[in-house]
Amino acid sequence: MSNISKPFTLHKSSPTILFHSSTSASLLYIHHRQTIHHPYPKPQASLSLSPPHSLAMATLKASVLLSDISRDEGHLGSGAIHVITGPMFSGKSTSLLRRIKTEISVGRSVAMVKSSKDTRYAKDSVVTHDGIGFPCWALPDLMSFPERFGQDAYDKLDEIGIDEAQFFGDLYEFCCKVADVDGKTVIVAGLDGDYLRRRFGAILDIIPIADSVTKLTARCEVCGQKGFFTLRKTCDTRTELIGGADVYMPVCRKHYVNNQIVINASKKVLGSEKARAETCVKTIADMI
């Protein structure tokens, strides 16, 4: 035992390798658990000084594992998250594409992702309302992106753009992984509120972990003042209703709250939600 130097600690029985990382050193513990199925101990393979190559092999494996950890720790916390939000027609996709193209111009590797729910202009491109497009991956979720893109190719990426981010239920988890663990920059563009000015998707969830948040405004189509809200022109009350200028328009606060369509839709939605809540309460009361 005197010939074995740190960071190894040996115990009897079958080997299980555990890693412990601290600020001072990363220690590899080779811990042995003895399992007895028999009155006499069953022969176990264990790390010993004989033959000599056993220790050498363990040292080599430990070195590889330590280098992997060091490489991963080099990425920890080195990424960034930037959020672009605002109502429809405020230029979110345009701003996103502008940033992505700037990164490409300086030699950084980028990829663009959008929700597969967005089929307004093209299935495999992010397209602005002005008709400017950029190739992208249209996906139902974000966490599958590295596998779909290819892990080797993903590892080489510097930056990932996400358009129509309000449609991704795993937005928070993905941004945390990409920025905090993988050390990449994420630029997220999406609506922060729906047509009833309620929170939309997970955009607001990632603001606490974002490096920057840009809130854009549009122009009210009624008076030309700054438009902060998205007005739905139809009486359809679904939260997710894909559409463009045929369905939505940006408006200021005055022309949002005074719009009869909004008033009627709000009453209808809030009324149905109240009815569902009352039904639920009645059902629970009946069960008690």
From TrEMBL:
<keyword id="KW-0862">Zinc</keyword>
<comment type="similarity">
    <text>Belongs to the thymidine kinase family.</text>
</comment>
<protein>
    <recommendedName>
        <fullName>Thymidine kinase</fullName>
        <ecNumber>2.7.1.21</ecNumber>
    </recommendedName>
</protein>
<dbReference type="GO" id="GO:0004797">
    <property type="term" value="F:thymidine kinase activity"/>
</dbReference>
<comment type="pathway">
    <text>Pyrimidine metabolism.</text>
</comment>
<dbReference type="GO" id="GO:0046872">
    <property type="term" value="F:metal ion binding"/>
</dbReference>
<dbReference type="InterPro" id="IPR020633">
    <property type="entry name" value="Thymidine_kinase_CS"/>
</dbReference>
<keyword id="KW-0237">DNA synthesis</keyword>
<dbReference type="GO" id="GO:0005524">
    <property type="term" value="F:ATP binding"/>
</dbReference>
<dbReference type="InterPro" id="IPR027417">
    <property type="entry name" value="P-loop_NTPase"/>
</dbReference>
<dbReference type="GO" id="GO:0006950">
    <property type="term" value="P:response to stress"/>
</dbReference>
<dbReference type="Pfam" id="PF00265">
    <property type="entry name" value="TK"/>
</dbReference>
<keyword id="KW-0479">Metal-binding</keyword>
<dbReference type="GO" id="GO:0071897">
    <property type="term" value="P:DNA biosynthetic process"/>
</dbReference>
<keyword id="KW-0547">Nucleotide-binding</keyword>
<dbReference type="InterPro" id="IPR001267">
    <property type="entry name" value="Thymidine_kinase"/>
</dbReference>
<dbReference type="GO" id="GO:0042802">
    <property type="term" value="F:identical protein binding"/>
</dbReference>
<keyword id="KW-0418">Kinase</keyword>
<keyword id="KW-0067">ATP-binding</keyword>
<keyword id="KW-0808">Transferase</keyword>
<comment type="pathway">
    <text>Purine metabolism.</text>
</comment>
